[in-house]
Amino acid sequence: MLNALCRALPAFLFFLTLTTSLPAGAQGAIVRRAAIDIGSASIKCTVADVDAASGELVKIVEEFSRKVDFAEDLARSYDGNLGKEIMARGKEVLEEMKRKGLKLRARQFSAVGGHTFRTARNGRAFFVTLEDELSIPCRIISKQQASLLNYHAVRMRLKTDEDTLLVWDIGGNSQRMTARNSDGTMTFYVDDLASVSFKNTVIQLIQGKDINTVSSPNPVSAEQVRSGLRYARSHAEMDVPKELADRVRRGTMTIVGVGGVHCYSIPETLGEDPAPFTREQVAAALDKWTNKPDKAFASEYAATRLTNLILVLGYMDALDITTVTPLKINEAHGLLVSPEYW
User: Which of 79, 87, 150, 340 has a Cα at 20 to 30 A from 111?
Assistant: First the structure.
């Protein structure tokens, strides 16, 4: 039955769920869960204790992450399929995280995959193979559900006013903005222009190179940076819903950045720990890293470090965002406290 369900569900974000049922009468007990966020460029796992009755997070036990660049692999695919090597690598990392979770005495496991897997022609087959070979059932959620997981995880962490909160998530192949409207409904901005996809746009459209033979745009010249900024600004001005854009431009919203770009890439190029960063700081960092080769970044994500600065600054300029507060939240944190997934 689980196999049939997994095959029937669409495949953007996928949950690997290994569940040991709670005994009858266990409501109110503390259960240790391992939630896995399979992103387009990395796989992250959070092991935490959760109140089984209320769904509230009690304590984060441990968190770990590994790079698995599914998005880059798919971008280079000639037939729209994920390659055998990247799928084997993903399976290996998931097995490793499962073992770690079990050593930490996790009783329930859930993992979520991303947009890359729904796009890939062999994405569903990959999920089925993982289920069969790892003996882990899987579940799929939509882009909007993924956005809500991040939004509620941020809200619970910050305990901020929902009327003024905007959660801005940039991953490898998609970015999302989520906010609550005055009537209680939610606004979602979901776009494919993100870290890897924008990096490849710079390589193809601005540098005139082939992404099948060139994986990094670095070094990026000052003229190319200016062209990239114009592209990002124009894209944001055209694609972000007008009502949401107007709310952001008023300057009354708290902009919380989640995902690898806001929480790791930007702070690393700024040379600081994740903290509120300003538009001026991002612009200064962009000037600093322009014309630098990959080796100067000293990062396994060097290929996207500079273009991430361009992308974020372009959006900040277009929406008149002065400050972004990074928060290390991902879908896994939202999964931990969402009872419908356990």
Answer: 79
Q: CB pairs under 8 A, 24+ apart, for 221-227? A: 221/290, 221/291, 222/290, 222/291, 225/286, 225/290, 225/306, 225/310
Instruction: Output the six-digit token pair for 153.
Output: 């995880």
Rounded Cα distance between 101 and 43, Å, is: 14
Strand order in the sheet with 18-19: 18-19, 108-112, 30-38, 42-51, 57-67
**What is the topology classification, in CATH, of domain 145-326?**
Nucleotidyltransferase; domain 5 (3.30.420)
Antiparallel, parallel or unpaired: β 57-67 and 108-112: unpaired
Which pLDDT band, with edges at 50, 70 and 90, does 28 fall under? low
What is d(CA 336, CA 110) in angstroms, rounded to the nearest whole number?
Answer: 8
The β-bridge partners of 28 are none
H or E segment to which residue 323 belongs: strand 323-326
Q: Which is it for strands 138-141 and 13-16: parallel, antiparallel or unpaired?
A: antiparallel
Task: List the chain domain ranges.
Answer: 2-141, 145-326
Rounded CA Rg of the chain:
20
Write down the pTM of the prediction: 0.74
The predicted-structure confidence for 104-159, as pLDDT tens digits, reads as follows 999 989 877 877 888 889 988 887 888 788 777 667 678 888 888 889 889 878 87
Shortest CA distance to 134 belongs to which of 3, 41, 1, 5? 3
Q: What is the CATH number of domain 2-141?
A: 3.30.420.40
C-beta neighbour count of 72 within 10 angstroms: 23
CA–CA separation, 124 vs 114, rounded Å? 12
Q: In whole angstroms, give the CA distance from residue 264 to residue 13.
A: 22
Tokens representing residue 339 in the block: 């009872």
Residue 174's pLDDT band (cuts 50, 70, 90): confident
Considering all CA atoms of the chain, what is the largest pairwise distance in Å, rounded to the nearest integer?
A: 66
Angle at which helices 279-289 and 302-319 pack, to 10 degrees? Answer: 140
